[in-house]
Amino acid sequence: MVKRVRWGILATGGIAASFTADLLDLPDAEVVAVASRTEASAKAFAERFGIERAYGDWASLAADEDVDVVYVATPHAAHREAAGLCLEAGRAVLCEKAFALNAREAAELVTLARSRGVFLMEAMWMYCNPLVRRMKALVDEGAIGEVRTVQADFGLAGPFPPSHRLRDPAQGGGALLDLGVYPVSFAQLLLGEPAAVTASAQLSDEGVDLQTGMLLSWDNGAHALLHCALNAGTGVTASVTGSAGRIDVPSGFFSPERFVLHRDGRDPEEFVAAPEDGPHDSMRHEAIEVMRRVRAGDTESPLVPLEGSLAVMRTLDTVRERVGVRYPGER
Question: Quick count: other Cβ atoms within 10 Å of Cβ 107?
Answer without folding.
Answer: 17
